[in-house]
Design brief:
Layout (H helix, E strand, L loop, with lengths): L2 H12 L5 H53 L15 E4 L2 E6 L2 E2 L2 E2 L2 E3 L21 E5 L12 E6 L2 E12 L4 E6 L4 E2 L2 E2 L13 E14 L4 E8 L5 E7 L2 E10 L4 E2 L16 E11 L14 E8 L2 H10 L1
Antiparallel strand pairs: 1-2, 2-12, 3-4, 5-12, 6-9, 7-8, 7-12, 8-9, 10-11, 12-13, 13-14, 15-16, 15-17, 17-18
Length: 321
Amino acid sequence: MSPRTARPRATSRARRGFTLVELLIAMLLGVVVLSAATGFALQTWQTRRGSGIRDVVDRNGRYIGMTVARDVQEAGVGIESTPSWGTLTTFNDTVAVLSVPYTGVDPAEVYRIAPPPPDTVNPLPYGGTCGMRCIDFFKEDNTFDIRVGDLARLQVNGERRLILVTAVANASPTTFRVTFAPMATLLGYKAGITDSLLLDRSGTSVQRMSVTAFWRDLASKRLMRASRLTTAGVLMGEPIADNVEQFTTSLIFVGGNEAPGADGFDADTTNDYNKVAALKVVARIKADRTDRSVNAGQPLERTYTWRVAPRNLMYERNRLN
């Protein structure tokens, strides 16, 4: 056979294409590679979806912890706790933090009572100086900084009460008049003078207070934070976290014992307000959606526990001791 006749046979053989077996093998390999890639992509997508659900829950938990810790550190700024009256309290799974507000470097002014004549009567007859829910106070520098809606501390010698201001007006060039809500308790504290508290001519004063409170709204399952009250004594709050299934609070006292709240009036002196060492908060948070790749498709819930030691309460306790 000559070279001239052999060359066309080689060209014809090169153009025949793939055999059926070769095509089947190629298709099989393609299916295997595609299946592996699809499985990897699906697993990555499910992992990212699951991580997103967990991240939302953890983010809510971190935010609650940081917010509570920040605000609790303000407890007792400008006013120390006493055995029967504290600046950090818990009641009905609500946390309330009290402190004295500052304008620049100056704390809120303390105003002395302006008692009616005659000066020989002391303590004053039951009630305020201008009505059952009304007391006159001396201005400072011809002015005053208490407004409607303010929470204030009424001090009568060693007795402390909270009052919720419902009206403020000038009474004279040197005095102003404070009217307060007819409430026996506010934020778990005694309030007003409804239990026959008698005002002292020289030992009665009032001072504006700051308040921060946390509680769980049962209907919406939201954790709420408030810094003001309505004139009816209701906390005016805004939500800081959703899907909060549980929010419980307790106080830890010097010595390590724990209780739902303090009590400075019982025989036990270990749970007095001036023995508060830390606040304990437990919150259970649920994810806002479910996924089959997370918790077997059931709603994801995580429980967080925080213990906050208010530095100002520790400072005051050490200073007084």
